[in-house]
Each structure stands twice: as C-alpha cells, then as structure tokens.
Specification:
It is a single chain. The protein has 266 residues and is α/β, with parallel strands linked by helices. The chain is built from eight helices and seven strands; from the N terminus they run E-H-E-H-E-H-E-H-E-H-E-H-H-H-E. Strands 3-2-1-4-5-6-7 form a seven-stranded parallel beta sheet, sandwiched between helices. It starts with 25 loop residues before the first strand and ends in a 7-residue tail after the last strand.
Length: 266
Amino acid sequence: MTPEAKQTTPEPGSSTPGGSRWRGRVALVTGASSGIGREIVRELTRAGMRVAFCARRRARLEALAQELPDAQSSLPLVCDLQDEVQIAAMFAELRARWDGVDVLVNNAGFARGASLLDGASSDWRAILEVNVLALAICSREAIADMRRRDVAGHVINLSSMAAHRVPVGSAMYSASKYAVRSLTEGLRGELRAMDSAIRVTAISPGYVETEFALAATGDPEHARRTYARYPCLQAGDIARTVRFALDAPPHMQVHDILIRPTRQPL
C-alpha cells in the first residue's frame, strides 16, 4: 500500500478555488439529531462536503435532511451506537453510497445522573458503550476507509471539559471523557508510527446550551438553571471550531482544543 504520507489523492489540506478545501469530500457525523451534532452537519454542508449523519431518532434525522440544500449530498442514517451490528450496517451503507469516509466527527455522547455511590450499572454501561466503545469502533472503520483509498483524512473527537476535571456526581461521565483523551493520543501515536497523514483532533467544550442537561437529568428546571448562570457556549461555536480544525494546512494538526464560556469558573 502506498504510504499515507505520499498520497497523491487530491489533498484535503490544500485550498481549492471558490470554496472549502474539503469540498466534495465525505464526512460522517455521529449524534446528529440535535445540538452540536446538528450544527456540525450544517457547517460541513456549507463547506461543500457530502455529509452522512446518524442518530437513533429517525424523525429528527429526516427533519434535518429536509433543511439541507442538496438531498444528493446528505445521507441520514438511523443507528444505535450501542449496537455494533448497526454500526457495521451504517458503514456498509455509506460505503455503498459514497465509497467511504474522509472525515469522521465522533460527536455522539451522553451522560446520566449516575453517581458512583448509587448509579445504575445499566447507565454506567451505556455511557461507556456510546462515549468510548462506539467512538473507537467508528474510528477504526473510518480510518480503514481512509487508508484503503489513500486519503489524508481527519478524525475529530468531541470530548468535554469533564475530561480535564471531575464534577461531583459525574465521575463515570468524566471517566468516559478521560478515555476519549487516551484514545485520541493513542490513535495519533498509531497513525504516526505508520507514517500516516491522517490527522486527529479532540475538542473539549465546557457548558454548551443544548438538550444535554435535560437528557442527563430529565429535569427541565435543572436544565434551565444550568444554562442560566452565565452566557453559555452555543452549538454553532463548536461547529465552527470543527471547521477551524479541518481547515488547518496539512502540516498542522490542531490536536487538542479546550473551550469554556468566558464566565465558567472551572
């Protein structure tokens, strides 16, 4: 196989006249039914990419697809990331449609109000399956596509500031995001060892005003208070950060980005 460092496929890190350097390339965004994932899909579509996007909620995926300007450049995929069979089927459909992935955005992730003292084992398991194992499986499959087609692609992991400190009561969620830090570093090391030009980025946001707090607690009032303390980040802020990392020149890997609201104390 031609070493990735010598790839002659049109270089995604090189500017193209009249648009994004990734124009026409294929992205897969996980967890795209709301919030950050939905905004990333919109941002990459504006960059001229063909975008596949997955989540469990079919109706929301179809609604997002209707908002996008070109049906031929979007591919909604229903997938439960806790089920490896469904992940395999998703990649098979994407390969049949567009021959594989050039950019993977591992955005899917969630938390539950599941402390270490009284949390349900099922909640812990779900957190680890989606936030850690699914991320690793999707990365493996996407990189296989990139290497098979000699593409200098990009994997972007949506981590969290919880990977850099441990909020009380959120230890399992933080553990999953610490694992994302390890997976990001480990993946970069393995790619460097094979002299690959594939890049890896982790983005760790602080509080972003989305449905996340409500999904984690099931308490609308708690979610309202969470986002009312100070001006929080917005999903579009994170989507534009993804675009920034992608648009860096080929010799530059934006490896780890930490983003907080200005007034967030920790």
